[in-house]
Amino acid sequence: MRILVAMSGGVDSSVVAALLKEQGHEVIGVTMKLWEGPNGEMPESGCCTASDSEDARRVASKLDIPYYVLDYTESFSKNVVENFTQMYAQGLTPNPCVECNRSVKFDHFINQAKKLNCDKVATGHYAKIIKNNDKYELHKADYLDKDQSYVLHMLKSSDLENITFPLGEISKPDVRQIAARIGLKTAFKKDSQDICFVGKKDYRSFVEKRIDLTSPGEIFDTKGNKVGDHNGIHEFTVGQRKGLPGGYGTPRYVTKINVQNKNVTIGEKNDLLVSSFIVEELSCVNNLEYKNLTIQTRYNSEDLPCEIKKLSDTEILVQLKEPAFSVAPGQFGVIYNGTKVVCGGRISPKVLENVG
Amino acid sequence: MKNQDYLYLDHAASTPMRKSALDKYIEAESFGFANSSGGHKLSRNSKNLLEDSREIIAELLDSAPSEIVFTSGGTEADNWTIKSLFDSKQPNNNLVTSNIEHEAVLASAEWISSNGFQTKYAKSDENGFVTKDEFIKQIDDETKVASLMWGNNETGVIQPIKDISKELKSINSSTLFHSDVVQGIISDNVDFHRNGIESAAISAHKIGGPKGVGAMFVNNKFKLPSFLHGGKQELERRAGTVDVPGIAAFATALQEQQTRFDEEVGLMNDERLIFEDKLKNALSVEIIGESMKRLPHISNVQFRDINSEVLLIQLDLNGLGVSRGSACASGAQKPSHVLQAMNIDSKFINNHLRFSFGWTTQVGDGSKAADIVMKAVKEIE
Q: A137 to chain B, minimum CA–CA distance in Å?
């Protein structure tokens, strides 16, 4: 097969390219250039830096495969960076990596691969694709510590048909060993953790540079008494403990952010417990399922048993079996049946039913 | 794939070294390796070789040896002329150039501008041509340097240098008229004195010489302040140990290029025309600046419905090397400033490729290239 491999310069995608080449495929390496600063500079750290693409080029040269850099900066800036700043401005908790996979990477990448007569695209994600009759299913990786099915939930069966994730059955330590065996310089490179376009900087200063965030509002307790003022809801996220009015004896947390009237509500930890919420912008891998479901409300978080009710083609109501603390509007909720991804979407700020 | 099976049509970016030049380099490195500024026999060898090379190049370019200064290439020469004449004691001085110049000129212009000097840009028309009137109307009493390229590196469109230089002097006789002739020299007769060019940037590797070597022509009327400070090399104009073997190879390359000029350029022109005709007949394409006087080695093709980012890759995989706009550090490519200056419809601005022929071009290359392009386009569609 001719396979287009997305190479970030990290060890995972480097090993993917190497493995596919060893298996006898015709491999073409590509780095997606996602972001550059105002003067064309690349960020210092993260998954799309100049030095990373340099690493990718070096690996491609060692593997003796053709290698290209494709420019995705326009789409990335429009779909990911703008969305990120807008969501923060609204007091939501964005997940730029999911947004990037959802609206920048895969669509465009698969499309380009087809134009280049490639049979498949491959990435270094930890997830599995299983063919079940005519359908392609997305499953958690065998190596659960690194499972990335959460950030890939938006892929549909028709996308998965064109994708291969060679690391789905391999552990990270094994990946590093393979890299060392074939002499890849990236074998012991540390994993990127930062948001690629923000780097090591504080994301708030990144957001503040881009949009005017001064939108003063008031702070209330859960009984509706005013307890303070604030300069803008971007300074808060649900679950936040720092920087709140004190004097209660027990710690206070942001429990609710009202985007319309800019009011912030604070309460006790138990006020953060959520038992039902809406997931919108829903995307299903195959058909929606209703039995034996769990949900992850953050990347690689605990699987919470739940039931769902379909509200529309793009909205479901999620009912947790046990109330949980970790539900932040703006993050993605991904529904699983065992290891299989059923569907996922954005946790809506609309109705968050608190149980105290 | 071996290099010899690969069809190279990116000569505007660089060319392989001519065998004569490479041989000369090896010989010169043995005979004239010593520092040309030294006081012993081997230095004299080196110095003699340097001055012989200067004479050869000067003669080939119809100029005086004292008008040739060696540099590291075209970029340095552009930077030197444009930056070094502006002085904070004359804050009202301005620079005039065009919006389709090479990055070496544009970035130098931005630097001048960031230092507080006015920078004026003559605008290209939709054919990639800067008219005489458009350029001349920017010139005034305070214009210190005016810079316009001979032929554009992306479209090949030849600019009205001679017309402009004549009229420019009648408005401001002290303005230095600089021209980046890096592409022009590949396939056109560039005579500095006859065209009123007072300073020019030339690069060796575009005509089969070594990379990292270039020359600057500066009319004897002008003395540019030194750009690199240090020793007294190059008549105190450019410090640093002189790359004599590289310069000797450059002289040899230029000699061969000028001797074979009609034959080589004739072939580039023929093959380019065959290539363009074949593409126009088979595909929905437009040749940029087709109605204009163009450098024979450059063909900028607009593909109606195909993004050239992918096409470039598909051509590479099929064994044809060409380029798109100008490459940034990471290899990703942006819409070209030249095409933007020409007001090319934004729908098509990412659909361009530059095919550039050169001294290694063989009979049949134009047709072969067109076949590969047609195959690649079919594969993409």
A: 29
- Shared-domain flag, residues A300 and A333: yes
pLDDT tier at A108 (50, 70, 90 boundaries)?
Answer: confident
Which among B329, B332, B379 is the nearest to A71, CB-wise? B332
Q: Is A100 a catalytic residue?
A: yes
Does residue A46 have a pLDDT over 70?
no
Secondary structure (DSSP) of A92-124: ----HHHHHIIIIIHHHHHHHHHHTT-SEEE--
What pLDDT shows up at residue A37? 63
Identify from A7, A52, A111, A115 which residue to disrupt to test chain B contact, counting B C-beta atoms within 10 A and taking the largest count.
A115
Give the predicted TM-score (pTM) of the model: 0.84
CATH code of residue B288: 3.90.1150.10
How far apart are the CA of B287 and the nearest CA of chain A, in angstroms? 23
ipTM: 0.79
Answer whether A280's CB lies under 8 Å from A331's CB. Answer: no
Same domain, B193 and B309: no
Domain boundary among B209, B236, B259: B259
Does the pLDDT at position B2 exceed 70? no
Q: Chain B contact for A66, CB < 8 A?
A: yes
Chain B residues in contact with A73 by the CB 8 A cut-off are: 332
Tell me how many residue pairs between chain A and chain B have CB atoms under 8 A apart. 41
- The kind and range of the H/E element at A73 are helix A73-76
The residue of chain A with its CA nearest to that of B335 is: A71
The one-letter code for the residue type at B42 is: L
Query: What's the pLDDT score for residue A353?
Result: 46
Q: In terms of CA atoms, which chain B residue is nearest residue A72?
A: B332
Block residue for tokens 């990435």:
A123
Cα B40–chain centre separation: 37
Say which DSSP state A143 is in: S
CB nearest to B332's CB, from A66, A70, A117: A70
Residues 6+ apart with CB under 8 A from A353: A274, A275, A276, A277
Amino acid letter at B16? P
Residue B331, chain A, CB below 8 Å: the answer is: yes
Q: How many Å apart are CA B77 and CA B67, to the nearest integer?
A: 13
Domain hosting residue B57, numbered range: 19-259
Please tell me the distance from the alpha carbon of residue A80 to that of residue A94, in angstroms, as a whole number.
Answer: 10
| A38 and chain B in contact, CB less than 8 A | no
Residues A94, A71 share a domain: yes
Note whether B275 and B326 are same-domain residues: yes
Residue A226: domain span? 216-268
Q: Give all strands (DSSP E) within A124-262, no chain letters.
A: 127-132, 135-140, 163-164, 217-221, 226-230, 253-257
Residue A70 lies in a domain: yes
Interface of A with B in 80-139 (CB under 8 A): 112, 115-117
Q: How far is A33 from chain B, CA to nearest CA, in Å? A: 7
A196 is an active site residue: yes
Angle between helices B74-84 and B103-114 (to 10 degrees): 30
Query: For B184-241, what is each residue's pLDDT tens digit?
Result: 999 999 999 999 999 999 999 999 999 999 999 999 999 888 888 888 788 777 878 8
Number of structural domains, chain B?
2
Give yes or no for B103 touching A (CB within 8 A): no
Name the minimum distance, in Å, from the CA of A50 to any CA of chain B. 6
CA distance A110 to A97: 18
The stretches of chain B forming alpha helices (DSSP H) are 19-31, 41-60, 74-84, 103-114, 132-136, 161-171, 184-187, 233-236, 244-259, 261-282, 308-317, 337-341, 365-380
Contacts of B371 (CB under 8 A, 6+ apart): B278
Please check whether residue B143 touches A, CB under 8 A.
Answer: no
Neighbours of B233 (CB within 10 A): 20
Instruction: Test B314 with A70 for CB contact under 8 angstroms.
Output: no
Final residue in a domain of this structure, among B200, B230, B259: B259
